[in-house]
Amino acid sequence: MSTLDFTHILTRTINELSEQESLKGLFHQHHDGNPLPSSKVLEEIIELVRTILFPGYFGKSSVNISTLRYHIGVNIERLHKLLSDQIMAGVCFSCRNDEDACTSACKLKAEALAARLIERLPTIRAILATDVEAAYNGDPAAENYGEIISCYPVIKALTNYRVAHELLRLEVPLIPRIMTEMAHSETGIDIHPAAQIGHHFTIDHGTGVVIGATCIIGNNVKLYQGVTLGAKSFPLDSNGNPIKGIPRHPIIEDNVIVYSNATILGRITIGHDSVVGANIWVTEDMKPESKVYKKE
Predict the structure, then answer these.
(1) Is 30 helix (H, G, I), strand (E, B) or coil?
(2) Which residues touch 251 (CB under 8 Å, ≥6 apart)?
(3) Residue 50 scores a pLDDT above 70
(4) Which of 5, 84, 213, 245 has CA 20 to 30 A from 194's CA?
(5) 253-258: average pLDDT
(6) Full DSSP string of 32-93
(7) What phi, psi does 236 have (nearest 5°)?
(8) The pLDDT value given to residue 30
């Protein structure tokens, strides 16, 4: 091939990739030149949140009780700035207004939403403390809380989830999904930010767990690796498309244990104090205090 041939191939490919028809649904033009919130910045935001919620376990700073207030203050200030910018990108991503309206209105809205998320961090820390306790009490191999916070993937995944869930409640678009998918990549635990999860929740080992968007999980629930809380089927509209926004995932009541690789599908209820054995499918309601195991 000659240089001319290469040039012709590249030019033709550029033209094909730039065709509007081929970009349908795949291209978003952002007024400020930033098409989406930055994954790199969101990683820093998650690291800041973990540092604030678990001082001394995450972050680069050496912290002690006398410098704690200073370090939290510095991190909160940076968190508000970064989070405001990313929320603005998310809000503008879904904004239908003209360029000027988006730029002026979205900036104020983003700063307010970032502040409201930060205001909820003490509550998020309090419920994460119960998750740490549940992981510690549920694993005889764990020697102390520090080991749980530092080493167990469930705490990282739940930190992302609980922050993302609050952002979703604040109606922040896009960013909650990015945050939980970051945890999915990091830990192998896939929790949709819209799921509702109570206190003292833990996942032993964690890899391969899936928790769907409309799941409701009570208090003192424990899952093992490979558990799926999924949808059994997707009702279709008159055009044959899945109907969105309807409850389609399980309800897990208080004090339930679900062992490894169990699959629980559909809008069914697993009654309180029940046990679901390993490697089975459950597609019907379970009464409270019942047990189901795979029979040989």
Answers:
(1) coil
(2) 215, 216, 267, 268, 269, 270
(3) yes
(4) 84
(5) 98
(6) TS--S--HHHHHHHHHHHHHHHSBTTBSS----TTTHHHHHHHHHHHHHHHHHHHHHHHHHH
(7) -110, 150
(8) 56
Q: For residue 284, which phi and psi values (nearest 5 degrees)? A: -130, 155
Written as six digits, the tokens of 60 are 């680069």
- How do strand 281-282 and strand 222-224 relate by DSSP bridges? unpaired
**Tokens found for residue 29:** 């033009």
Tokens linked to 95 = 């904004």
* Calpha distance 26→20 (Å, rounded): 10
Task: Give the pLDDT band (50/70/90) at residue 259.
Answer: very high
Assigned token pair, 237: 């509209």
Q: How many CB atoms lie under 10 A from the CB of residue 288?
A: 14
Chain segment 199-251, per-residue pLDDT in tens: 999 999 999 999 999 999 999 999 999 999 999 877 788 888 888 889 999 99
pLDDT reported for residue 24: 73
Q: Distances from the Cα of 51 to the Cαs of 65, 96, 137, 230, in angstroms?
A: 14, 36, 24, 32
The size of the chain, in residues, is 296
**Residue holding tokens 């904004």?**
95
Note the pLDDT of residue 293.
92
Give the C-alpha separation, 262 to 287, whole Å: 17
Q: How far is CA 41 from CA 18, 78, 79, 127, in A?
A: 28, 11, 10, 25
Please name the residue ranges forming H helices in the chain.
3-17, 39-53, 68-93, 99-119, 121-137, 145-151, 153-169, 175-187
CA angle centred on 202, ends 45 and 229, rounded to 5°: 95
Query: For residue 246, with 0-12 CB atoms within 10 Å meaning exposed, 13-18 middle and 19 or more buried, which class applies?
Result: exposed
Residue with tokens 């549920």: 138
55-114 pLDDT per residue, tens? 989 887 678 888 888 889 999 999 999 999 999 888 876 665 555 455 667 788 899 999
